[in-house]
Amino acid sequence: MFEAAGTEAINLGLGQPDFDTPEHIKKAAIKAIKEGFTGYTIGTGIPELRKAISEKFKKENNIEVSPEEIMVTSGASEALHIALEALVQSGDEVLVPDPGFVSYSALTKIADGKVIGVPLEDLKMSPDTVSEYLTDKTKVLVINSPSNPTGMVQTKDEIKGFADLAEDHNIIIISDEVYEHFIYEGEHVSPAQFSENVITVNAVSKTYAMTGWRLGYLAANSEYIEQMLKVHQYVQACANSISQKAALAALTGPQDCVIEMGSEFRKRRDLLLKGFKDIGIKCIEPKGAFYAFPEVLDGLSVSEKCIKNGVIVVPGSAFGNAPNNIRVSYAASRDNIKRALEIMERIL
Question: What residues make up the domain containing 279?
Answer without folding.
Answer: 2-20+256-347
